[in-house]
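pinging the channel bc i need a second pair of eyes. not urgent but kinda urgent?? the chain im working w is below, pasted from the shared doc
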Amino acid sequence: MPNYVELTYGQVALAALLIVVNGAVSIMLQLKMERLLAIAALRTIVQLLLVGWVLEWVFGLEAWYVVMALACLMTAIAGATAVRRNEHRYPGIWINTLISVWVSSWFVTGYVLLAVLQEIQHWYQPQYAIPLLGMVLGNTLNGISIGLSTLTESLVTRRREVETWLSLGGTRWEAARRPIQHAVRTGMIPIINSMMVVGVVSLPGMMTGQLVSGMSPIEAVKYQIVIMFMVASATALGTVGVVLLAFLRLFSADHQFLASRIRRLADTRATPHN
């Protein structure tokens, strides 16, 4: 018998009624968000149920090729999501972002599965591989998205400063150093803030789930420490990676700023770039 309270669909429905609070706020303040809230709530239910059914099947099958296929799909979606959050686009942004998400998240997750969790039976054991990769991807794409958006915005607003550096004989790195530093710093701030308050202000979702399922608090804390460092490392690697790849796309080898490559989303819809 499980060490946690098994929820019925009726109990889940009772919890879903809490979204009425959001709807009431929208109506009272005339925010006109009722339709958006209803769609978001419906998508939450449908998406999570689908994920639950898929994971039940994957966990039961426990085949490496199924785990790899699901991991590839999750990574591709994360990369696409990171790009879509960026207001500016440039040629190569999709492949740059996908590479950054892929390398950073898979490297860190692989390290933990092989070097940290040495007692697990297989590296592809879905009980560990899928949830850990999912948490890393969710946080890494935020850092990458913020860092990339900050870089392109900084290069647009600081165009004169960048071009002045180059016209005075500065290298492309000297001209772009400040926007790059600002972008990487901004991309890493959310995870650093989370690390500052974890356990004091908030209990992360995975740790809460482990406690509810009956795991010892100390054991749950150990897992959470591993996860926080995983997320921090992957976020740093992914943010630095996507920013440097963008730098190489937007500055030529002969130290020219290719500002014309950066275009707003509205413009890229008219003339898309890959």
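so The first helix runs from residue 9 to 16. and Strands lie at 88-89, 263-264. — does that match what u expected or am i reading it wrong
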